[in-house]
Amino acid sequence: MATMKIPMTVPSPRVDVDQLFKAFKGRGCDTSVIINILAHRNATQRALIEQEYETKFSDDLRKRLHSELHGHLKKAVLLWMPEAVERDASILKRSLRGAVTDHKAVAEIICTRSGSQLRQIKQVYNNTFGVKLEEDIESEASGNHKRVLLAYLNTTRYEGPEIDNASVENDARTLKSAVARKHKSDDQTLIQIFTDRSRTHLVAVRSTYRSMFGKELGKAIRDETRGNFEHVLLTILQCAENSCFYFAKALRKSMKGLGTDDTALIRVIVTRAEVDMQFIISEYRKRYKKTLHNAVHSDTTGHYRTFLLSLLGPNV
């Protein structure tokens, strides 16, 4: 369930763009007006606002926002404007080809999206940037980490609820053998099972592995793999089990300790606000005994704080 609140009676795009144009006039801009409009419009409404702004003022709204806003607020608003597939493609491009490769962000986008979403992302990526997503992964990732990302992108997985118990038990045994220290970890087997099986199947394998061998599959993966390869396998496993807890944990990490990882904080809130943020908020409260709203309020300031809290909706 989404959390951002849309007014009962939504103004027409023409009314919205007139208000935005006025907010941009003069020295500085009226940031509150920008937030009050854009943080309370869904993707379709935002697209109509962009079209109307360009038609009426012969100007690109995103470019205007880029010039008028600053800091983390600018990053958050500009990431909020596109529809989901375009946004995911842009996150992947920045994460792969930016000054520093953000492998965790790449894993987050690729391993939490459905097969149909990944196919759309690949198409938009190629159309927008003139290069295939797989080519940038080939360039920026390496080893088993690269192999699992490419396999997950290009494997057609069953996404329904049915499972075959015999296949589940066989996979549990195969994984036990694959991660056994004496075999030095059969990485290709891990990649095949983690990228080919449905999420429902992996959840059943995880439970069966625990019952058969008295050990958590996640712990076995952590014991026998390392680095980005370990991270991407655990991301797949955690999202199969409970994707909302995965995102709650990612938000917690972004605000834990000294300083805030604003890139991760913005990414998760913006990408999930129209999808399942209500469930993520519930998971956050259940796991950490604190509301996500209060955590974000403590770690952010000013209009940036106001915008993120607007996307989170009421603190209930």
TrEMBL record:
PROSITE patterns: ANNEXIN_1, ANNEXIN_2. It comes from the Eukaryota. It holds the Pfam family Annexin. Coiled coil: none annotated. The keyword Acetylation applies. InterPro entries: Annexin, Annexin_repeat, Annexin_repeat_CS, Annexin_sf. Keywords: Acetylation, Annexin, Calcium, Calcium/phospholipid-binding, Repeat. A pair of annexin repeats may form one binding site for calcium and phospholipid. Belongs to the annexin family. Belongs to the annexin (TC 1.A.31.1) family. This is Annexin. It comes from Camelina sativa (False flax).
